[in-house]
Amino acid sequence: SGLPNDVSNVRAVGKYEVTMHITTPFSPSWFSDNELSQITPMPKAWDVTSLSAAPGSGKCSKATYSSIKDQMSDPAQGLAVLNKKTQEPVPITASAAACNAVFNFLTAQSSKPASTFASSSLWSVVDGPWKIQKMDGQGNLTLTYNNRYGGPVAPHHITTFIEQPYTSEQAEYNVLQDPTGNNAIDVGYLPTVDAPSPAAGALVGANPSSLSNYSLSALYLWQLSYMPYNFNNTTGQAPIFRQLYFRRAFQDLVDQEGVINGPLHGYGKTTVGPISLYPPTTYLSQNVKSSGDPWSLNVQEAKKLLESHGWTIENKIFTCVRPGTGTGQCGAGIPPHRQLKFQMMYASGIDWMQSAARELTSNASLAGIQLSLQQMPFGDVINNTFGISPAPSCRCKWQLALWGSWTYAPDYLPTGDTLFQKLAPNNAGQYVDPQNEKLITDTLRAKTSAQFDATMHNWDDYLTTQLPVVYEPDQATLVETIKGLDIGVQNSTGTITPEDWHYLK
């Protein structure tokens, strides 16, 4: 599933209305929240192939859906698709060629140095509340208020919004402690390892004296915290990951409560399945909600599971001594003498994550599993995991990767087709399970809200027990706001709306 394949035709029926013809019945909830939510209308000023061209001269905005569907790919070849019957190349339509030209031009413009964005005639075209004033390649961004914006804004709202990047959480924390400095922060993020632990029943603790100029709030995003296995890695360990008993044993080594009460300082929630326990939603199965955490730390249980499936500790590491697919054997594809030795990438610059990775390594060693940690920048972990250039595109060698969470925005429903369906681009570990595929399809085809919730619960019940990923604690985002500035209630999708921020009078 996914656009444009889910739609056979699109046409305008009015100035502010379009009609889409879908290829098969879909759940209204899913199609609205996970398909339509990802469509971003583009201004006519972007329908060009040069900076000096008149808006709309690229002629893509006049193209019909049928004239470009399935043909928006590799225009350099001059041919886009093959005839389904003859498998002969189909000449690209004029409309598709025009849209490809516009797309290539916009892509080239977006690849230029960030410092040129503010002066570009393209990116100065906005209909939202903010315009780019300046920007650089290091992540520094200054936005100014768009006086032509017609949407609702708060009285006394701010008119300049500046984003400042930091190399680590601690670097930002150091600046937060100096609210009168040259780089003073009005709204910043507090590392959980430096956060005041909340008292029983409280959402946040009392700020230390060094942060007395700020108010602290805790935000739990609508997300899933997990670490994927690479079920298709070429290092020889993939067959081990495919064994459910191993995934259960490994999950028994993740001390979520210990991480929450330790480096997260109480600002966290356990993750027990593919649908988060918090914030609470109707999508969460009551069975999962009421069962608590079935995977709490249990080193002895992990060892028993491995021993009962053909593994014996030799030189402090579990080794397969009973290969095969029968009862009490290691499982398909696992050769004799294979050891439980794995490499685990994790993102640097996040203190609690480093602590969690080291604790997992320690717990694993007690259970006869050797983890070798590889710390690297967040972007490098993502590039290696998803095969993004310049990393190897085959996604072959990595085994375990920890970078944090997947936030459900703008695909707001946690239906599984985004993260756990076969061939889904965000299925980092390339997890495949036929029953999982069926249950996901059921959710996408549910006709009513009641049917949708029921199918979601069935899927949640099933995949929770299958452990397609390593479930990790869901950490809170701790926001420090300078006193005198009101930023309102923060959005659980992580969307920042500084046009709503205003100074108190």
Features:
single chain; 505 residues; alpha+beta; 3-stranded antiparallel β-sheet; 22 strands; 19% strand
Report on the structure:
The chain is of the alpha+beta class. Helix content is 25%, strand content 19%. It is built from 13 helices and 22 strands. It has a three-stranded antiparallel β-sheet, with no helix packed on it. The chain is globular and about 70 Å long. 31% of the residues are buried.
Task: Summarize it.
The protein is of the alpha+beta class and about 500 residues long. Helix content is about 25%, strand content about 20%. The protein is built from 13 helices and 22 strands.
What portion of residues is helical? 10-25%
Outline type = globular
Poorly predicted tracts of residues:
74-80
Strand order of the largest sheet: 5-6-7
Main beta-sheet strand count, sense and barrel state:
3 strands, antiparallel
Tell me the span between the first and last alpha carbons: 51 Å
Number of helices: 13
| Overall pLDDT | 91
Q: What is the beta-strand fraction?
A: 15-25%
Structural class: alpha+beta
Q: What Rg, in angstroms, do the CA atoms define?
A: 26 Å
